[in-house]
Specification:
By secondary structure, the chain is mainly α. Helices cover 43% and strands 9% of the residues. The chain is elongated, with a radius of gyration of 32 Å. It binds glutamic acid (GLU).
Length: 478
Amino acid sequence: MNQEVRTRFAPSPTGFMHLGGLRAALYGYLFARKNGGKFILRIEDTDQVRFVEGATEVIYDTLRRCGMNWDEGPDVGGPVGPYIQSQRKELYLPYAQQLVKTGHAYYCFCEKAESEEDSGEFDRADDPCRDLPLEEAKARVAAGEPYVIRQRIPKDGTTTFHDASFGDITVENTTLDDQVLLKRDGLPTYNFANVIDDHLMGITHVVRGSEYLSSAPKYNLLYEGFGWEVPTYVHCSPVMRDAQHKMSKRHGDPSYEDLIAQGYLSQAVVNYVALLGWAPGGEREIYSLPELVEAFDIKGISKSPAIFDIDKLRYFNSEYLRAMTPEQFAAVAAPYIRQTVHNPAIDPAQIAPLLQQRCEVLTDIPEKVDFFDALPEYDLALYTNKKSKTDPAVSLEMLHAVRPLLAALPTWDDETLLASMKELAERLEVKNAKVMWPVRIAAAGKLVTPGGAVEICRILGREETLRRIDAGIAKLEG
Ligand code: GLU
């Protein structure tokens, strides 16, 4: 029987989800779902310098909004918990001791170990503890001397590991450091904890960022030291801001949460991020989450770094907005319309249809529809338009002609409004645009508007439309 696929997402609770993290989560999720396996959430909160309030909730919230449900995790439990690393801290020492016993690790009492334990810069050639007889080391531990436990890397030879996207990688053991596994305070380093946790949790495929690639040979030596099966590694190349720089929140690049705040839809971000470094093959780009599951294959993961392209994401987002039902779109657009349209007499649901085909990101909306709330100050030059053959003088004439017609309309809907303006154009033997352009400018006070004269007047209502036409006439009469 085939082994059940078990993948995990192991974020550190930083308070935000960077896109590389989201992508690792996504690939782990897609792979598990594709293979009918389990997707596990493990919170890695031991290597944190600072506790970030609410950071674990951010992780839950993000995964949920993206539709990535997990089968085991801190909140839902599971057979191999706890799923929060800080609640597992007791369990690492015996494993470190086991490695000491088998010679794959050693006690180190050096002063400098403390300051350098996280940097990996410790030169084992100088470390007198590496060759201490075990009995002597144990006696010092028993006497209460502070110590760390270091991995004993072979002095010669090479270590080879396999990665699903990078293939076989072989390194000289002399390039690997005797990294600290257990710190003086008894807590594991990330490099130790992830091996123990992945093993105890039965993880079969480890999907993570390629920043861990250089540590992978040391992980392999640990697995070998324990005699455990090495999981399949799937390292993903970094998400780049440009050809030279990795994306970084510190340098202002957006996290998932930032993108949502900027008006992107979760599904669009998920779809876009999935394709950053993975190609399903073929031309198709728009995939829902279930479709991604269906299409996912580790073979499609690329070794080359992927450059984050916000314009491309905007395009994905506009496709998702367009694909919504009008009701769905109105629901997501309403709060953005309300940011500038406060007038309670105007229903955002009336404005939404004008926007669905005309916005890429929801945050485009407030600025596009602000004129519904209040007529902006505008320049008379807006009345000049070559194509519609209008200028301020023509516009004044048209507004004078259209005003009484609009005032007398029996009903106020698109058909009636359109018919009256067309009739006027016919009567005056001019193109429709010659009537519509001035009406739209007078009604909106803006050059570019979602919707034309008819829709704008209809939404504003008769009273407000006439008021604005009067204001236009007054302005044109100067
Ligand atoms: N806690 C690590 C991180 O957030 C996890 C890396 C891994 O997936 O092993 O980068």
